[in-house]
Amino acid sequence: MGLSTHVLDTMHGCPAAGMSVSLYTTDGERTTLIKAFTLNGDGRNPDGPLLDNSTIRVGTYRLVFDVAGYFTAKGVRLPEPHFLNRVSLDFGVAHTHEHYHVPLLVSPWSYATYRGS
Fold first, then answer.
1. What is the mean pLDDT of the chain?
2. Exposed, middle or buried: residue 57 (CB in 10 Å: 0-12, 13-18, 19+)?
3. How far apart are CA 17 and CA 40, in angstroms?
4. Alpha-carbon span 50 to 72, nearest angstrom
5. Is the pLDDT of residue 78 over 90?
6. How many degrees, rounded to 5, is the angle at CA 53 between CA 38 and CA 22?
7. What are the Cα distances from residue 94, in Å, to 24, 32, 97?
8. pLDDT tens, residue by residue, 58-75
9. pLDDT at residue 1, rounded to an integer
């Protein structure tokens, strides 16, 4: 299945529909944008997997989630500067035949992630 993500808004108890996300490859300090997208009503990429098993490569990647933009659009009054602005998750892919699912649980003040299934 390749690479996927899913974001849950723990402040409101719902998927983070409308959050902007970007996926990059990384090589040291250099990043290359692969795609940018907006999460659907289920908090997922509307086009399905971010990368499938034929396009994912061994290497390092970065997902960037626009947390402050999402919560501001939901009408949450955030302090300036925001405690969390963008959450960047750097991770590695070692086995392209496996499924890499990178979920994010997020509020304006905290986040958690793990390798999902």
1. 97
2. exposed
3. 5
4. 25
5. yes
6. 25
7. 16, 19, 9
8. 999 999 999 999 999 999
9. 81
CA distances from 109 to 12, 29, 65, 84 (A): 13, 27, 14, 6
The candidate with the shortest Cα–Cα distance to 31, out of 86, 83, 85, is: 86
CB 87 within 8 A of CB 5: no
Domain boundary assignment for the chain: 3-113
Q: Please provide the DSSP assignment of the chain as one string.
A: --EEEEEEETTTTEE-TT-EEEEEEEETTEEEEEEEEE--TTSB-TTS-SB-TTT--SEEEEEEEEHHHHHHHTT----SS-S-SEEEEEEEE--TTS-EEEEEEE-SS-EEE--B-
Residue (of 63, 66, 57, 68) closest to 116 by Cα position: 63
Tell me the pTM. 0.96
What's the CATH code, domain 3-113? 2.60.40.180
Residue 10 Rama label (left phi>0; alpha psi -120 to 50; beta): alpha
